[in-house]
Amino acid sequence: MTDPPLIIGVGGGSGSGKTTVVNKIVQGIGKNNILLIEHDSYYRDLSHITLTERQKQNFDHPSALETELMIRHLDALKKGYKVDLPVYDFVAHTRSEKTISAVPREIILIDGILIFVEPKLRELMDIKIYVDTDDDVRLLRRLKRDIIERGRDFDGVLNQYEKFVRPMHLEFVEPSKRYSDIIIPRGGENLVALQMVIALIKLRLKQ
User: Fold this and answer.
1) Cα separation of 34 and 56, whole Å?
2) Cβ(151)–Cβ(93) below 8 Å
3) Which of 36, 60, 190, 195 has the greatest count of CB atoms below 10 A from its CB?
4) Which pTM was predicted?
């Protein structure tokens, strides 16, 4: 690969449909050309405190994520270097000892609720996409995801939403929408917007 990778950020609130949008982009472009990096993988390791204390942490505040490490990794990938991506255990709330070896691809797709908050991270992105979805829809999706995929209980997820997720969305996520280049209402259901995004990416790759 001679040219630096095209870095695309997909942001938006928890449960907005970011993963669906990312998957549609991968389907439209081809997975062999894309490296996917999730901001969630960069949650700080909490193994130094008890599980009970870990579960009380605010995971929706920017300080919960080691964004500076993600910035270093993206900068290295942009320069053509291999990096070891972190792996996070969402049940134990600790960073795994395992890592994922990653090499630069034609496109680097990053997603996360807070990726547009940090200016240095935004500066690395060539295209910034914000997935905009109604609050009630996002809550239902979050409940399903955290209970089924992450082994959480209903009361715990709902309490976390009321105490942390919604307030942090209003304070950090929603205001960061202003930094996006493209806003996709209704997320993965908006096929017209997705087709336009895929067409734009293909055009940028040809330039």
Assistant:
1) 35
2) no
3) 60
4) 0.91
> What are 147-197's pLDDT values in tens digits?
887 777 888 888 888 999 999 999 999 999 999 999 999 888 899 999 999
Distance CA 173, CA 171 (A): 6
Domains of the chain: 6-206 (3.40.50.300)
Task: Report how far residue 129's alpha carbon sits from residue 12's, in angstroms, rounded to the nearest whole number.
Answer: 8
Q: What single letter denotes the amino acid at residue 101? A: S
Vertex 9, ends 37 and 24: CA angle to 5°?
80
Residue 55, both tokens: 């579960």
The number of beta carbons lying within 10 Å of the beta carbon of residue 165 is: 24
Q: Positive or negative CA dihedral for 132, 136, 139, 140? A: negative
Compute the distance between CA of residue 65 and CA of residue 120 in angstroms, rounded to an integer.
14
3-state secondary structure of 16: coil
Among the listed residues 126, 141, 138, the one whose alpha carbon sits nearest the alpha carbon of residue 181: 126
* C-beta neighbour count of 32 within 10 angstroms: 8
- The CA-atom distances, in angstroms, between 105 and each of 22, 34, 96, 186, 198 are 15, 6, 24, 29, 17
Residue 22 CA to residue 91 CA, distance in Å, equals: 24
